[in-house]
Amino acid sequence: MAEENFMRVPTAGQQRKTVYTEAMEIFHRAAEVMNLDRRVRLELEEPDYEHIFYVTTKLKDRLVPVSPEAARGYTDLSVTKVRDPNGLERLADGKIILNGKALLGSDVNIRAGHLRLEDGTVYQLVPGESQRFKAYRVQHNQARGPYKGGIRYHREVSLDLFKALAAEMTWKTAIADVPFGGGKGGIQLDPRQFGREELQTISLRFMYKLKQLVGPNIDIPAPDVGTNSEVMALYLRQFSDGERERHNQRGVITGKDVRIGGSEGRTKATGQGVAYTIEDYFQDRGESVKGKTFITQGFGNVGSWGSLILQNMGAKLLAVNDADGSIFNPEGIDALELMRYVNENPKNLKRSVLGFPGAQSISKADFWLVKADIAVPAALGGEITAELAEKLNVKLIAEGANGPTTPEADRVLEKRKIDLIPDIICNAGGVTVSYYEWIQNKRMEGWSEKEVDARLELALKKNYRIIRDIARNTPRRTDMHDSRPYTIGRTVDTRCAAMILALKRIEAHYMLEGFSQ
Ligand code: NAD
Questions:
Q1: Has residue 4 got a pLDDT over 60?
Q2: Which of 20, 71, 191, 286 could form a disulfide with 122 if both were Cys (CB 3.0 to 4.6 A apart)?
Q3: From CA 77, how far away is CA 151, in angstroms rounded?
């Protein structure tokens, strides 16, 4: 009986709800209203390829803090004085990695595998084991160019999630009008629980296996949650090591450090794009960002740069929430000071906003209730649920994160007349400057930050204007943009309009180039 059920193919409409099916709701809605070609719709409905593979590594020895009860057995154990404290690498979970010759030349007192450090804590010495991690790369679509999308290191990733994120990249590259398709991938791990060298070997091994799937004209990874330019440098080296023309391959990875072929302005690009779209939203209404208030969820790359640039445009940051807590100051939080506190304070192991002296701590529930003009969700997906959308005290949501708002929440926001800048335009700044990086690599050029910013501003504002024209059904041509090929003869909501722009641009490739048989 159970077997029979297992064998049965689910009919349409009966599908289990997943992150992917939820993310694709808007695709189906837009495809329906614009009457997308049936075959193109089938091509886009599922990814081209879904790769799952495994990465193994040998972990290092760790000092693991023992429980207070267990520590009682060691009250008479004298302190171990470590000669080179740099050899101890403290992790966010309280464990300590023993690097190099940390204990050599030190005054070591070990009993039954336990020792006490100068902080008074008793630790158990646990030898490093080999571990296996699950890794993914989803290549969603390449009708418009090579697959393009970030690599995420996070505990909560899955094929389902990467499918959704890869599809988002297909839409985003089409909206930003850069000649790429969509991809996404990563590794299931919490990077904060591993040491620097461990993460290096995991990253190298990951690229060792990924190498046959990517390339400067095939699939181009970039940073995402939990990865950064340092990880990109490792990928680049692992990909091009020993190759005869390795400098021609610099474009296999974007988001690199500027000193090794990265682009000026790339690190801040996504936040910069979030700020440009917000600026354009207010300009369209005859208003300005100056004097507006905002709250930010997630203070990593996107959240921190977005906040700083909005602040520089004259807006005031009132509250921030991240994975470890929330902070609030009705007088305003200095985004630059907060960035320094998060990134440069060696005591802030979790890289959290929590404990920032310039604000008070509040609960996550209270964070979302803060009254402000703008909310910038810049953490993970699915954070703004229908229930939360009922309570929000803001006028505009600018989606820095990918998929932060659920479809049910969308309906509530529409009912409550809270405006939205959809993720696929709002956070497209990163992939747009990744494209500039890729061109610079191809041409062996280096553009100035001013030049990058000017191109980015034009690209995002132009396409955001086309989206607004589609939404309002006002086809027109101005000095900056031409929305005539994209409007569909009726008004739609902004998220649907953004998707229509993406689908029209992708559909053109299939219709004009045809299908390979
Ligand atoms: P990041 O790793 O630099 O920062 C992530 C931030 O989110 C951290 O502050 C973390 O504390 C916070 N966070 C994690 N889990 C949380 C939770 N459960 N509740 C609240 N906060 C939580 O990542 P990032 O690069 O800034 O990316 C953030 C979002 O923006 C992601 O959705 C990503 O896909 C999207 N995005 C990033 C880029 C880019 O260029 N980096 C481009 C487009 C979209």
A1: no
A2: 71
A3: 45
Q: Considering only CA atoms, which residue is closest to atom 31 of ligand 1?
A: 401
Q: pTM (2 decimals)?
A: 0.92
CA nearest 488: which of 480, 498, 44, 459?
498
Q: Which of 148, 189, 225, 295, when mutated, tests ligand 1's pocket best, judged by the most ligand atoms within 8 Å of its CB?
A: 225
Secondary structure letter of residue 284 according to DSSP: H
d(CA 411, CA 21): 17
> What's the length of the chain?
517
Give me the percent of the chain exceeding a pLDDT of 90: 90
Q: Which two tokens stand for residue 222?
A: 């970039």
Contact 165, 184 (CB under 8 A): yes
Q: Mind giving me the DSSP string for 99-114?
A: -TTTTTTSB---BTTE
Q: If you write DSSP's letter for every residue of 431-449 in order, what string do you get?
A: HHHHHHHHHHHHHT----H
CA of 380 to the centre of ligand 1 (A): 6
Q: Which amino acid is at 423?
A: D
CA of 349 to the centre of ligand 1 (A): 17
Instruction: Locate all alpha helices (DSSP H) within 269-363, ordered by sequence.
Output: 269-284, 301-312, 335-344
- For 249-274, the DSSP string reads GGGGS-S--GGGTPPTTSTTHHHHHH
pLDDT of residue 1: 43
409 touches ligand 1 (CB under 6 Å) = no
Q: Which of 270, 362, 436 to mutate to test the pocket of ligand 1 (most atoms within 8 A of CB)?
A: 270
Q: Which of 141, 150, 171 is nearest to 426 (CA)?
A: 171
Crossing angle of the two packed helices 229-240 and 196-210, in degrees rounded to 10: 50
